[in-house]
Amino acid sequence: MEPGIILGVVLAIMLVLSVPIAMSLGLATLAAILVMSTDFLIFLPQKFINGIDSFTLLAIPLFILAGTIMGKGGIARRIIDLAMVFVGRLRGGLGMVSIISTMFFSGVCGSASADTAAIGSVTIPAMKKRKYPAPFATAIIASAGGTSQLVPPSIDLIIIGIVANISIGGLFAAGFLPGLVNGVALMILVYFYARKLNLPLEPKIIFVEKIKIIWRSSLAILMVVIILGGILGGVFTPTEASSVAVVYGFIVSHFIYKELKLTDIPKVLLRTSELTGIVFLVLGMASVFSYILTFERIPHSIAESIKTYADNWIIFVLFVNIVFFLLGMIMDALPALIILMPILVPVGVSLGMDPIHIGILVQANVGISLISPPVGVCLYVACGLSKQPIEKVIKSLIPFYIVLVGTVLVISYVPEIALYIPRMLGYIN
Asked: What percent of the chain has pLDDT over 70?
């Protein structure tokens, strides 16, 4: 049997058996190598190390660490308080606060699971207390956590930039407006559902208290400005920005807010190590998997097939959306990005698309996969926080799926939404 067929069959079996994705990729690769030649076994550790041997990838554990520090140090809660000042009095205001806060928090940590956990741990109990149906509250947090990954500095955007050789700064700049489109669409949905459910309004905040909240939250917002302004302004690289985020987050959380204790540091580092280990294990295994694919010329064959049937960018974009929507239901987004982006970007460019736009529309699809069972990490985190079974939450998630699919199509077929800011900043000629 051909190695390529063995690769696909073993991977499919592993996924059906719910084997962790990193192990599935590794076992599929090993099976293919045993069919090809055992001489290839020497390449396994080499390709694994090469897959994670990148200075830029150092930004991933550092942004995860920054997010964990901020979650422990009270920065997340102050972002929530600030959002409450501006939209808290609207019908469904607390749900809108959850969405805005998640977007802001994503602007400093870049991790979907960290976003969802940090904001959801505060807002889900608050929404339940305000008579929000628990599945609805869970759906709000899950969908916000998934779609927030368009907001820089998203870890997925860093990976897309590395594997597809796209400017990470350009991807960060391109994520703003699509992230805003998603956020506003979700807030509108929450508003109308809140009216339908007749959810209570939040208590009015007096003017003096508003000023106090804005003042207390200013350091948290300044963190977003420093990090993203520094990256987009060319002051420092994404990796350097992640270091700044860690140092700034620690200083503010420990010395100013005084909520991060030195005794919390071991737990913070342990949590960061766990998340980083998962990400890098998948990255390494996906790199080995990709090596075998490339050796068998499978990416070339796939690219030629795509060009045959998708002879213009409109059909190509539809194809990309369908592929990532389906893959998001059966496998983690990370290996899909590593394996497919080097194939899809050259094809899209040959059809006249900008690589930055391709990266953003793919990430918009990844946002949906993050809330899609059986592997949607944001869905699992949100359900864990609310103690709700997934089958109950899925029903409440259906309107959110519909809205996000609609925004993905808008982002896909109106390229300027993604390309306007990168062009303005000089990332696109």
From this structure: 96
Peptide bond preceding 153: is omega within 30 degrees of 0, i.e. cis? yes
Q: Which residue has the higher pLDDT, 61 or 329?
A: 61
> Could you please report the per-residue DSSP string of 111-130?
-HHHHHHHHHHHHHHHHHHT
Query: 158, 57 in Cβ contact below 8 A?
Result: yes
What are 323's two structure tokens? 């592929």
- Cα separation, 54 vs 159, whole angstroms: 11
Q: Is residue 31's pLDDT more than 70?
A: yes
Query: Which among 58, 361, 334, 110 is positioned nearest to 228, based on CA atoms?
Result: 110
Q: How far apart (Å, rounded) are the C-alpha atoms in residues 389 and 384?
A: 8
Q: How far apart are CA 145 and CA 139, in angstroms?
A: 10
Angstrom CA distances, 398 to 128, 139, 144, 157, stand at 20, 9, 14, 26
CA 30 to chain centre: 29
Query: Where is mean pLDDT largest: 228-232, 266-270, 378-382?
Result: 266-270
Name the residue with tokens 């980083």.
276
Residue among 334, 396, 379, 389 nearest 117 (CA): 379
**Residue among 372, 371, 364, 46 at smallest CA distance from 174:** 364
CB 210 within 8 A of CB 85: yes
How do the domains of the chain map onto residue ranges?
52-287+297-424
Going by the DSSP 8-state scheme, the letter that residue 264 receives in this structure is G
Sign for the pseudo-dihedral over CA of 120, 123, 128, 131 = negative
Residue with tokens 């002051």: 235
Please state, in angstroms and as integers, the Cα–Cα distance from residue 193 to each residue in 95, 126, 314, 358, following that order. Answer: 10, 17, 33, 33
Contact between 367 and 109 under an 8 Å Cβ cutoff? The reply is no
In 3D, which of 249, 260, 258 has the Cα closest to residue 223? 249
3-state secondary structure of 82: helix
What φ, ψ does residue 352 adopt, rounded to 5°?
95, 10
Other C-beta atoms within 10 Å of 256: how many? 12
Q: Is 246 in contact with 272 (CB distance < 8 Å)?
A: no
